[in-house]
Amino acid sequence: MSAPLRVLLADDQALLRSGLAALLRLEKDFEVVGEAATCAEALDLVERERPDVLLLDVQMPAGMRGGGQSGPADGLEVAEALRGSGVRIIVLTTFGRAGYLRRTLAAGADGFMVKDAPVDRLVDAIRRVHRGLRAVDPELAAQSLAVGPNPLTAKETEVLRAAARGGTTADIAARVFLSEGTVRNHLSAVIGKLCVANRAEAVRTATEHGWI
Amino acid sequence: MSAPLRVLLADDQALLRSGLAALLRLEKDFEVVGEAATCAEALDLVERERPDVLLLDVQMPAGMRGGGQSGPADGLEVAEALRGSGVRIIVLTTFGRAGYLRRTLAAGADGFMVKDAPVDRLVDAIRRVHRGLRAVDPELAAQSLAVGPNPLTAKETEVLRAAARGGTTADIAARVFLSEGTVRNHLSAVIGKLCVANRAEAVRTATEHGWI
DNA sequence: GACACAGCATGACAGCTGTCATGGGACCGG
DNA sequence: CCGGTCCCATGACAGCTGTCATGCTGTGTC
Predict the structure, then answer these.
(1) Residues of chain B neighbouring A26 (CB-CB closer than 8 A)
(2) How would DSSP label each residue in B59-114?
(3) pLDDT in tens, B169-201
(4) Which CATH class for the A154-208 domain?
(5) Most C-beta atoms within 10 A of its C-beta, which of A17, B40, B83, B133?
């Protein structure tokens, strides 16, 4: 008999977390070694428990660690921080946003699943990832290829992200240390690339694609 | 020995749905009589199974029913459609938006829970609701009172909702059959009431409060 | 009826936003 | 080195947006 496959859950929705734990315990070779509700908690528990596989939600509050230093603010940053630690990571998300997939794989995760996938597929993914394979939701992979990569330049992305926080052009310019004219120009480029009518729609479209 | 408490689950996230089902089956007096992934499916299953309690997600795709007529498009509309049917309803939601609570109770639901509440509290809520009591997440209830009711008039809400779909003022005016000037005026009133700088922020704020 | 009041509709005006033309700097292949 | 290309920065201009003053309608009160 082989050693159990040790799984750690990290998701801020308590209901999903405990539900998933109950489901995974039904698999005889799985052992759920912990549940984390925040990014900081996830890192702590990984350190302490050294799980084989970490199931990680993208949208998750940062939480606080002992040191007081500012830790990761979402699941992708947690994955980034754990790169090279040997822990296999599957990123879970509510939204099948194509851009997330790209960023997730770039962050060093091994799997990517949406929350409306059936449980069997998640269980499969956990086993695959544990064997050193990758596990990507096929539907999402196709969508990701269809949408293509982020068409925005670094500066455009930065300005758009600042614009997403709201406020007038002057506010945005102050945040990114640019002149108002330059901010408007970058936003104009974004609006053109995204084929939308104004900055508000640009923010929405980019968010939907996971580009900001 | 009393009859089991028959529960129906409606949520588009398969993982949460089956996880929750597994958890509720652990309660000996509960029986999970079905799972629905869309609004239409939820109505069908309620008709067929006549559950005691329906757990209903707010964000849920409409789905298609036999008749072809356009059915409810979100959980709140499902609750509305089931008003007076005798089925007790608990609305579940990811976001603790105060406005949702108000609309939920107005739609005739008996309980309101956020998805990051612990399972015990949900189980409690199901039992309470089955006994004919109400079950509202206390934290959210407090927040709801603090935020207050929707300050927008009917027309303002309608225009803002049209504005949320994006596009220029002319587009919005065409959607709500008003002149551009009138649209701008309503939006100006909304912007004033919500203490924000422009229509984009107004849309965001109103959405966060569940007012549109 | 007279009145106050709230919501709705409209157009004029000032200011903010998106577009464009222009120019500077970094990088690459020839 | 040079031309080509890409990204970044800037200011002028036209058009869209938010504000305001004004008037209309329906409702409830006296």
Answers:
(1) 22
(2) S------TT-S---SSHHHHHHHTTTSS-EEEEEESS--HHHHHHHHHTT-SEEEE
(3) 888 888 888 888 889 989 999 998 898 988 899
(4) mainly alpha
(5) A17
